[in-house]
């Protein structure tokens, strides 16, 4: 499993992880156990997903040493003014002593408390309870403000990113500032994107599935990528993407699929608490 270096001294993140949004609480332990057996070493959850207990149980029971599994969770929108307590609650649900990465889930512009929340994440990081800290769904303006007003640059920004929403401006900004780009809904939530004829051509050329082609594109762009599935065969399929290479023409063909289409909410207007 390939890893990328975070801007936090010495911390590496496995480039491909397992996302568990919409995995029901009662199925989370089994899905994560299946993923760990298939070779995933990175799990992406959030307090809002209401499945941290199952994720933690699988990580604790899997037999892989804790330090070999990278666990991310996230601070929910209504908790920006009580981040340390919300973090402790997540840790208790996970049944872990620390997480590898703690993210602010959304900036929530109407509420305007993400700078305050970030100061709490800085404290959690300094205390060693999160090995790295970052954000999710932050715009260039949100990131610029954090960097101007606080001490630590986020290590990662987890944003919606797939061939229909390529986020070129965000990726360039991240790269210029030492922030990794992490792609959520990397397969476009399985809603139409994987049926695109341009992907079918590449799938046939490489004897792979459209999902594998898209995941390989993410890896070659340098994104951290966290596909979700609860189907064991797809869980395995999605991690089997380290033994082939897309050439320049293939990458350009996927580049040409860009159509600025979101499947999830727009961070500029998402204010749910
Ligand atoms: P995704 O793009 O990973 O798509 C998942 C869906 O695609 C599955 O439910 C299934 O229907 C289909 N699928 C998966 N593998 C397939 C395969 N091999 N072949 C065919 N179909 C396949 O969507 P997602 O779950 O929205 O995103 C992945 C992860 O990103 C989430 O689980 C979560 O961890 C994270 N996420 C974060 C945010 C955020 O705000 N930070 C938002 C959404 C998702």
Keywords:
single chain, 273 residues, alpha/beta, TIM Barrel, eight-stranded parallel sheet, two-stranded antiparallel sheet, 15% strand, binds nicotinamide-adenine-dinucleotide
- CATH topology name, in short, is TIM Barrel
Largest sheet: 8 strands, parallel
Which architecture does the CATH hierarchy give at level 2? Answer: Alpha-Beta Barrel
Mean pLDDT across every amino acid position: 98
Structural classification: alpha/beta
- Give the ligands present: nicotinamide-adenine-dinucleotide
Name the helicity range.
25-40%
Alpha-carbon distance between the termini? 36 Å
Assembly form of the protein: single chain
Q: Going by CATH, what is the homologous superfamily?
A: NADP-dependent oxidoreductase domain
Backbone CA Rg? 18 Å
């Amino acid at each position: 499993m390939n890893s990328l270096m975070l801007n936090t001294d010495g911390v590496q993140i496995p480039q491909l992880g397992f996302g568990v949004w919409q995995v029901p609480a009662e199925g989370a332990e089994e899905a994560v156990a299946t993923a760990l057996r298939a070779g995933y070493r990175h799990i992406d959850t959030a307090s809002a997903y209401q499945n941290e207990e199952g994720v933690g149980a699988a990580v604790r029971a899997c037999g892989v040493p804790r330090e070999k599994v990278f666990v991310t969770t996230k601070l929910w929108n209504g908790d920006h003014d009580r981040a340390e307590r919300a973090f402790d609650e997540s840790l208790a649900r996970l049944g872990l002593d620390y997480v590898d990465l703690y993210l602010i889930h959304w900036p929530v512009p109407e509420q305007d408390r993400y700078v305050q929340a970030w100061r709490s994440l800085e404290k959690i990081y300094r205390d060693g309870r999160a090995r790295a800290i970052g954000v999710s769904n932050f715009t260039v303006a949100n990131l610029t403000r954090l960097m101007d007003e606080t001490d630590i640059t986020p290590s990662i920004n987890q944003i919606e990113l797939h061939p229909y929403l390529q986020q070129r401006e965000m990726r360039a900004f991240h790269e210029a500032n030492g922030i990794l780009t992490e792609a959520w809904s990397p397969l476009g939530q399985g809603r139409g994107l994987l049926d695109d004829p341009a992907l079918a051509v590449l799938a046939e050329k490489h004897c792979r599935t459209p999902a594998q082609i898209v995941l390989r594109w993410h890896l070659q762009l340098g994104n951290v990528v966290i596909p979700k599935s609860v189907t064991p065969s797809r869980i395995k399929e999605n991690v089997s993407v380290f033994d082939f290479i897309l050439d320049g023409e293939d990458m350009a063909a996927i580049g040409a699929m860009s159509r600025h289409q979101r499947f999830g909410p727009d961070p500029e207007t998402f204010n749910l608490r």
